[in-house]
Design a protein that fits this description.
Oligomer: single chain
CATH superfamily: Cytochrome P450
CATH class: Mainly Alpha
Number of strands: 12
Radius of gyration: 21 Å
Order of helices and strands: HHEEHEHHHHEHHHHHHHHEEEEHHEEEE
Number of domains: 1
CATH topology: Cytochrome p450
Strand content: 5-15%
Largest sheet: 5 strands, mixed
């Protein structure tokens, strides 16, 4: 039976379970394709590696819809509640000079030195979480390891008390659900923003050695970040800054369980760890599509015209399996070289947190391989549980035996 490509909903749980055959078909037959998106809207998928990379760099495809849509189109677009307006001024929602200004200021506080100093903390956290798991013998690899590790790290970096980490997980889940479950999520997001605003104001008066204080102190000539801008950046870091690592660690561990020969290679050769993490980034694509962009004019991509005002999604998960770029792209190969994956994006919006995500994944995966050499799913016959939604591809749970 022929599949109606335009009717395909790419946000469902069923689709998330295995999107790769659909993307392979698009690359071959329809590399630029409109599909169903959130709340019955339409999104244009760009699926070939070269076109995805070009879209991520194209100044005609804007992050800020106000710079791409006409007044009439903006009037018809879903309205962002005024309470959430401050969250729009973040690195993912701005273009050009506004984006460059924020990135310049944030970079001062998010240095490679600050990230490298976290190595010992991340290792101690990974070992502590696995100590607890070992006492039980079984564990949900997502809720008991992949989630608390990066969430605790980013909370420490920001300066959030550790006892609030579980509450932050609930708040970030609420924020990530705003698009498809707005009424259920509003209260959690408002509490999240209120707490962060108080934290910023406190650190402005009395600085600590943490990211909030560094952001409050950041200067570029006479320029500085406003409280709303810092809150928006913190929300971004606490969601994108840990959710993508959760996906990488969880889906990466699942991929290694499904490819024990590759797990064996990593255990036997420490030199493969870094290229192995790059391959897990390519193979699992923790960010399935780049975040939303809008066509500021009619665009011709792969001989298809994307109309001005359209929502454009550069499909990273498809680009990372493009057979024109990668030899045997559906094969996990921890020694793959070269590996020009696009997991962290390209261009001006390249992921600022990429070094931290790589550090956390290296430690998480290597610690699992060392301490749980017989890691396996608790029930191999049970279907793997994925979560529906936009942008990311996330495991709901992954019960394992150590």
């Amino acid at each position: 039976m022929a599949v109606d490509l335009a009717a395909t909903d790419v946000t469902t749980v069923a689709f998330k379970a295995d999107p790769f055959p659909f993307y392979a078909r698009l690359r071959h037959d329809s590399p630029v394709q409109p599909v169903r998106w959130m709340r019955g809207s339409t999104a244009w998928l760009v699926t070939r590696h070269g076109d995805v990379e070009a879209a991520l760099r194209d100044p005609r495809i804007r992050k800020d819809p106000r710079e791409a849509l006409t007044s009439a189109q903006l009037a018809d677009a879903p309205r962002v509640p005024k309470l959430f307006a401050p969250l729009q001024r973040n690195l993912l929602g701005l273009d050009g000079a506004d984006h460059d200004r924020l990135r310049r200021l944030v970079r001062q506080a998010f240095t490679p030195r600050r990230i490298e100093l976290m190595r010992q903390q991340v290792q101690e956290l990974a070992d502590g979480l696995l100590d607890e798991a070992a006492r039980r013998g079984s564990v949900d690899l997502i809720s008991d390891f992949a989630v608390p590790l990066p969430l605790t790290v980013i909370a420490r970096v920001i300066g959030v008390p550790e006892e609030l980490t579980p509450r932050f997980r609930a708040w970030t889940r609420a924020l990530l659900s705003v698009t498809d479950r707005p009424l259920r999520s509003v209260a959690g997001v408002l509490r999240f923003m209120r707490y962060l605003r108080r934290l910023v104001e406190s650190r402005s008066r009395e600085p600590y050695d943490d990211l909030v204080s560094a952001l409050a102190a950041a200067r570029d000539g006479g320029d500085r970040l406003s409280t709303d801008e810092i809150v928006a950046l913190l929300v971004l870091l606490l969601t994108a800054g840990h959710e993508t690592t959760v996906n990488l660690v969880g889906a990466g561990a699942l991929a290694l369980m499904e490819h024990p020969d590759q797990a064996h290679r990593l255990r036997e050769d420490d030199g493969l760890l870094r290229p192995g993490i790059e391959e897990l980034l390519r193979f699992t694509s923790p960010v399935e599509t780049a975040t939303e962009r809008w066509a500021a004019e009619d665009l011709l991509v792969a001989d298809v015209t994307i109309p001005q005002g359209s929502l454009v999604l550069a499909v990273i998960a498809s680009a990372n399996r493009d057979e024109q770029v990668f030899v045997e792209p559906d094969l996990l190969d921890v020694g793959r070289n070269p590996n020009p994956h696009l997991a962290f994006g390209k261009g001006a919006h390249y992921c600022l947190g990429a070094p931290l995500a790589r550090l956390e994944a290296e430690i998480a995966i290597s610690t699992l391989l060392r301490r749980a050499p017989h890691l396996r799913r608790a029930d191999p016959s049970a279907p793997v549980r994925w979560r529906g939604g936009a942008i990311v591809r996330t495991l709901e749970s992954l019960p394992v035996l150590l």
